[in-house]
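Please, structure for the following, as tokens.
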Amino acid sequence: MPDQLSVHRNPGRSHRVVPFVVVVQCSRFRNSVRRVVVPLVAAEVFGLADSDVGPHFQVEDREVVLAPLQITNVPTAALGPSIASLVSEEGRIINALDALLRRAWR
């Protein structure tokens, strides 16, 4: 099973704009045949500065941006091997997801 915060090459057609995805699903759902991922968009395409909602990272010498509004799921078999890990950036990723999911109106 891909580990939480492991980075994989984007298996989809949009791989030029979204070269990578990061697995955000926890191991509690390890038996699922799908994985919840967040796209890592090429920074030059994303066009916004580093922020709490769109943190920037370096993956394979490319600057990429976490795009939590594009959260999705993919078949586990489509992910292929992990090429990096963002475990060291866990706090920034969780903060971005929390900003997306929190109840701001309460």
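The mean pLDDT is 92. The helical segments are 43-46, 76-79, 90-101.
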